[in-house]
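User: Hey, quick favor. My workstation is busy. Could you predict this chain's structure for me?
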Amino acid sequence: MNLRLTKRGDYTVRAALALARAYPTSDYKKIREVAAEMDLPLQYTPEILGLLAKADLAEARAGRDGGYRLRQDPAEISLLAVVEAAEGPLRTERCTLSGGPCRWEEMCAVHPAWEKATEAFRESLANVNLAQVLAVDVGLEAGDYTVPESAHRRSLATGRSPAKRTRAAKRSKRTS
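Assistant: No problem, here it is.
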């Protein structure tokens, strides 16, 4: 089963993380800054930030000092809200048994179990806030977060994820 985000969802979570990093200063982040910081396509970033604004998670301000910022503390924004801003409601909208017709008109026999699993997944994302996700991201960047053996992108040679190496390399290029 594939529980991955679409590119749109991925970009939206990354953009929200960039805004969460800037939250303590209350500064607005320019579209180009968010795109560069999170390695997002510049031409797609306005749409992504617009999704966060439409979901009332971020606000935009025009002008030289404008940009985007979160509307509230990252600790008050659930990961579920960010994901659903991009992906829409995370719930099954069609029969889980996609190989053929359901035996019953209203629902299939798998529906109750699938609905329960979907609700547990939604609840799990709702119980994680953007500040917690940011803390993991900051820890990964600093090398202070222990990457579990089960991490799908773990590099056996270095013990660091490719994403961390890429972002760390980009940041060192910017600071040099």
